[in-house]
Write a structure and sequence with these properties.
Distance between the termini: 90 Å
Shape: flat
Helix content: 55-70%
Number of domains: 3
Structural class: alpha+beta
Radius of gyration: 28 Å
Number of helices: 16
CATH architecture of the largest domain: Orthogonal Bundle
Strand content: 5-15%
Order of helices and strands: HHHEEEHEEEEHHHHHHHHHHHH
Length: 463
Amino acid sequence: MKNIFKRFDIRVVVAIVATLSCVVIASDFILFRFTYQAQFEGMRSQLKIIAQTAALLVDADKLTQVPLNKEGISTPQFDYVEALLKKIKAANPKIKDIYTLKKVDSGNIWRFIVDLQTNNPADFSSPGDTYDAGRFPEMLKGYNDPSADTKIETDQWGSTLSGYAPIRDDLGRPVAVLGVDLDAGDVATVYRQSLSQALVILLVGIILAIILGAFISSRVLGPVKRLIHGTRHISRGNLDHRVPIKGDDEIGELANSFNSMAKSLEESRQRLMDYFYDAVKSLVLTLEYRDQYTMGHSQSVAHYAEKIAQHMGIDAKTIDMLKKVTLLHDIGKVGVRDNVLNKPDKLSDAEWEKIKGHPVLGWQILKPILDDPNMLEIIRNHHERQDGKGYPDGLIREQISLLVAIVTVADSYDAMTSNRPYRQGMSREEAIEQLHVGKGKQFHPDVVDALLEVLKKTDQKTA
């Protein structure tokens, strides 16, 4: 028996079986862990963004004026906050419940202020009702910084994940916590499906490894290396990678299973990103409802940016990314108060600094969830100028990417031709003249030329 293992072919077979088994187990574990962990952490990041953005919309002064007793529900301040929470929930159907809590002493027993309980109306809490926040450590953290629970809660009303963010007064001090319960049924389903798939693939993989061990090492080692290479790509998040192995044998089947799982992961991530965009676009709509003069501005800018990019020969995948991020380019304005955003008179220096801070705030809001630096660059730098006089970073010419320059021109043209509280919108001809004036100074010359061609083609079609 011992002499058998001295034979090279037997040792190769054993080595191949062992190697393939390890590859299958490792890839299975990585795929399963990546599927669920990516979905779960993605949802936690969304929750933090949603909770933080919603908290910025709440007027801390009016919230703290709600009496913490049964009569508080009849006050105008309660009605105002309740109406705002209803708008936020209506903008994001995934939200089950949204509520505000206040810490009244140094302990962990907090008190409700406004509770928009729609998941189970029987659990509605009146102002002043107590709540043991100590049961949820992430809720306690949410009093100072955005946070989200680390596990999904499941009850008779379904699976939920909760996120929290501080509501701050004008001095930046936390005065209450805003909590959001999000429907986590999709993530729970992914966990069960991924676990089942992982077990099936593990079993099939081990069986295939034993069968494939009978083949000659020269035929097997090549595909094995490609599988290992594919696993590394998947573990790094490159979900569009596919293992280039063809054939009807067991290796081909394993590669097909691997590619199928990678495709499933890619589709899951795309659904997650689509959900994120829908959630943030809902918040953008909420923002635009606050400012009737910019209603539809993001959609118009995205339209112009798409047409410019198409005219300049940019590939379809990049254009799709550009459209999505352009819809979110002004998300940072959620941090600007209504009396500044809609002020009909000239802004003071302090108010103008508040407005100028929206690109950085938008960048900070989206940075935890967007992993594409090009998208984040567009959010942060769409008010930069070619001559370096823009904000927030004072970039100049070659430091500004072409995609950023496209959004800058599209944004400026739509802003110039739109009515604002402090001025009437320019005519098309006046706006085009301003584009010529700013060409090479404020705007990228090639992008201006591309927009002018787009507008000319539009005129020809309508003529």
